[in-house]
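Researcher: I need the complex structure. Ligand is NAP. Inputs:
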Amino acid sequence: MNISGANILVTGGGRGIGQHLVNQLHQAGARLCVLEYDAPLCEELNQLAPDSIQALQCDVSDADAVDRAVQQIVESGFYIDVLINNAGIIHSEPLVNMLSRAERVHSRDNWRKVMSADLDSVFFVTSRVVDHMLAKRKKGIVISISSIAANGNAGQSAYSAAKAGVNALTHTWAKELGPMGLRFIAVAPGFIDTPSTRAALSETILLKLQQQVPLRRLGEMGAVFQAVRYAIENDYLTGSVLEVDGGLVL
Ligand code: NAP
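Model: Output:
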């Protein structure tokens, strides 16, 4: 599929990797719709290019909110050619914290929060969008931003499980809906240099992490965009998880 002229829906497009994807896809000639949690970020996006980027405030982990937002998008005449499930939260917490005197076991609230934001959201948005794609009987693409943590990362039970779920859904939907002309790809970044990565990890930890990466550096957001572009443009690609990780194996 050509990016130029495509209608692309991006979740969590207000900052970080999602914002970078929105900007790059817009420059490449796509029309964008964004579902974003943060209302002021939606305002900023709506002022950027009112003719070609529209942003709606939506918590994609809330099924009813997703149903309303997707309906509104479709009714506005925005036929979705490509969905990019990018919204998510990164969370680290040991299964049992042996140094803690209070609650030693992984918080169940945090488990639910991460599963909702990172896995339920992908199921809610994709099911609604695919329903509209099938109704229009056109080809469509769903790209989900996963993570190499899906292979199992110590200290990230919920995040790893959610991202492994995203990969499993990608394989499942590719098989189930390929005959209808729909393609499903996951892009699994390693450590990417984003403001949220820098806010979450100290300079010392970042330097240590980079030593574990064969290419000895964090990935640029542009590397994730290149994988997304490849996923959109290569019409024989489906069911794949594209790892963009500088060679880091978890
Ligand atoms: P980020 O800077 O925190 O951006 C995530 C965006 O998603 C934010 O705009 C956030 O809004 C939005 N969002 C989160 N939960 C949402 C919800 N329930 N409904 C609507 N919007 C929501 O994170 P990032 O680093 O760009 O990560 C983007 C994706 O890449 C995530 O899926 C992440 O797991 C994946 N990833 C990132 C890295 C990395 O190194 N950064 C590596 C591997 C995979 P608010 O901030 O307003 O809540």
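Model: Summary of the prediction. The CA atoms of residues 63 and 124 lie 6 Å apart.
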